[in-house]
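Key idea: predict the complex, not the pieces.
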Amino acid sequence: MPSLLFYLFAAITLGFGVLVVSARNPVTSALSLAMSFVGLAALFLGLDAYFIGTIQILVYAGAVMVLFLFIIMLLDIKAEEGKSPNLPAVAGGVILAVIMALQITTVCSSFDKGGVKIKDAPLNLQQAGESAKLATIANDLKAGVLPDAKLMGLTLFQKYGFHLQAVGLLLLVGTVGVVVLSRREKGVKDA
Amino acid sequence: MITLNHYLIVSGMLFALGLAGVIARRNIIIIYMCLEMMLSAANLTLVAFSRFRVSEGLPDYAAQSLVFFTITVAAAEVAVGLAIIVALYRAKQSVETESVTKLQG
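Result:
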């Protein structure tokens, strides 16, 4: 990815991230978070992770953000107008965040493998195509296309089949849990 | 030219932002959004390492599988968390952290 695009999308991700934390109105926060996730998905695309970028938009910017907005509107949460921010907490949050950002920058600057440029780690699709076992993947690779979704599927179902099943079970348990949590108990009146 | 460090620093800043939000804000829904931001920051790190660790000409798909699982678990976690928030709102008529102090001794 050209450097300019990287800086643009990093700025979108971080700028809207700041807005998420600082906005007084929860709807503003939610919409900024959606934009921040779109910027992050663009960064994923720049890292040749097309499948992950797509599901980032589908799942996060689509499903999760709709859920957040739905709850905000359902509960009719107003902006924190007139309430002053909790100053010690804000100071603590900002100081911790600055310390953490400094620490990460320091660690990264002494991490010599971190200086690898993206063109020094090129993908070699021809070589990968020679060793690919599945014909459809090998054909794509030899044609110079990265069959990202196919390779992800191969990894997920070949190497992580059990984990995929476990995540499916987790989603089922989550669904049942949500239904149980949001069911009204008999005899308990809503105030 | 973009290096691995660029991505790691962006990811670290995103994580720090989320952390600041979790500590500074008092609206539970916004705290939840900041948690999602921190999870995404970790995903960016994983994808960056996956792209820069080229083996046999391809990115490391084990890392991207982990991102896939993280996104799935995060989606389930959001659903359950928001159901808890709705239950909390029914009991307290508020989504502020100050209204939930029963365990504060």
